[in-house]
Design goal:
By secondary structure, this protein is an alpha/beta fold. The chain has 17 helices and 14 strands. The strands form three sheets. The chain has a six-stranded mixed β-sheet, sandwiched between helices. Strands 5-4-3-6 form a four-stranded parallel β-sheet, with helices on both faces.
């Protein structure tokens, strides 16, 4: 392995520096998900760090490198979430003043959490890049040490401790899959892993809307932008420090779309009982996108964070039930007279469907005065069960169409 700006010994030193002050997260076997994907799968649970992401490691390592004068003056960073929380938490522990510049669009929950962890929060900038400019201006004016989320050798070294831990726990891994934002975590893991096992394959994963590192490496025009569930890796400008490391040590970068990321979040909860944010689930999304590429291999995927808003998680899980045909909304035509709605409910119950909600539409639909439409939200076993319910209703004289399913409106979804 050619020389890089960060060495394996730098990462081992980082491990010694932060030992006992960050969680040595488990590498857990994922047999159910691995069976589905056709590989032997292990998940590195960085979502179990105190602040819910791997950022604790690099932030602590950087803070512990400060001189007494730097520590007294304090640190500053720009971040929309995980880096902010990791730095704020460990700065408070070490008695170091911390300022976090967050963009004006930063989620309220992340702003409040960062404040709760003891940091001064400055909300400014309509992009993260604008926040970075403001952060550097404040750093210069107030003599603060700027802590970059990924373009810093000490940050990369801290994140790289994950690589050594993974191979200590499972030496037979032949592939490691890691999400890429600025590239700090995959750079550190790649350096560590390849120092132990040169033949191990490193695969990076980016959100399709933010393919900044892949485009930079391949000389393509940047196109990053948009709303992504994987906001933790929504980086427009790839790291200057991390790019050459990734070019040298990472064999490929896979892109995953929003539907694939959303499905991965759902699958991790359902099959492995693991809560991951969109960025944290990106590696699993890549495995699900191209299972044939990883078939028969011993794969380690890094669940880099779990800081997903509870309301968003609820929405993702509900949408997953709809996507799988386990929750459906049917529009049922009825004659508007006493007892008919009870007959509809009886037919649904006899087929094993569970009615969650019913909307009786009389006024706002183009139906005859003596008829009505009933919209029913129903829990089902699967897509085949939806078709069974629709068939029973139509046989009972109630024209029915599916309003929400994996397939087009008005058709029952295909069986999974």
């Amino acid at each position: 392995m050619a020389a890089t700006s960060v060495t394996a010994e730098d990462i081992r030193a980082a491990g010694r520096a932060i030992a006992g002050e960050v969680i040595r997260t488990p590498l857990v076997a994922a047999p159910r998900l691995g069976e589905i994907l056709g590989c032997e799968l292990y998940l590195k649970l960085e979502n179990q760090q105190y602040t819910g992401s791997f950022k604790d490691r690099g932030a602590l390592h950087k803070l512990k490198s400060l001189t007494p004068a730097q520590a007294k003056s304090g640190v500053i960073a720009m971040s929309a979430g995980n880096h902010a929380q990791g730095l704020a938490y460990h700065a408070r522990r070490l008695g170091i003043p911390a300022t976090i510049v967050m963009p004006e669009f930063a989620p309220f929950t992340k702003v409040e959490r960062t404040k709760e962890l003891g940091a001064r929060v400055v909300l400014t900038g309509d992009t993260l890049d604008a926040s970075a400019i403001a952060a550097r201006e404040i750093a210069e004016r107030e003599n603060l040490t700027f802590v970059h989320p990924y373009d810093d050798p000490l940050i990369v070294a801290g994140q790289g401790t994950i690589g050594f831990e993974m191979l200590e726990d499972q030496p037979e891994l032949d592939t490691i899959v890691v999400p890429i934002g600025g590239g700090g975590i995959i750079s550190g893991i790649a350096i560590a892993a390849k120092s132990v096992k040169p033949g191990i394959e490193m695969i990076g994963v980016e959100a399709e809307l933010f393919p900044s590192m892949a485009q930079a490496i391949h000389g393509q025009a940047p196109t990053a932008g948009g709303e992504t569930l994987a906001d933790g890796i929504a980086v427009k400008n790839p790291g200057a420090l991390t790019r050459p490391i990734i070019e040298e040590l990472v064999s490929d970068i896979l892109l995953v779309d929003e539907s694939q990321i959303e499905t991965a979040v759902h699958v991790l909860v359902e099959h492995q009982k693991i809560v991951a944010e969109g960025a944290g689930a990106a590696g699993v999304a890549a495995l699900m996108k191209e299972p044939e590429r990883f078939a028969g291999r011993k794969v380690g995927a890094v669940i880099c964070g779990g800081n997903i808003d509870v309301r968003l998680l609820s929405w993702v899980l509900t949408r997953g039930l709809v996507r799988d045909g386990r929750m459906v909304r049917l529009r049922i035509g009825i004659v508007d007279r006493p007892g008919v709605l009870a007959k509809v409910a009886q037919l649904i119950g006899e087929t094993g469907g569970n009615i969650i909600e019913v909307y009786h539409q009389r006024l706002f639909y183009d139906v005859p005065a003596k008829q009505a439409d009933v919209d029913a939200v129903i829990e089902t076993r699967n897509a085949g069960h939806v078709r069974e319910i629709v068939t029973a209703l139509e046989a009972g004289g109630f024209p029915t169409r599916v309003l929400s399913a994996r397939s087009d409106e008005g058709q029952a979804p295909d069986a999974p």
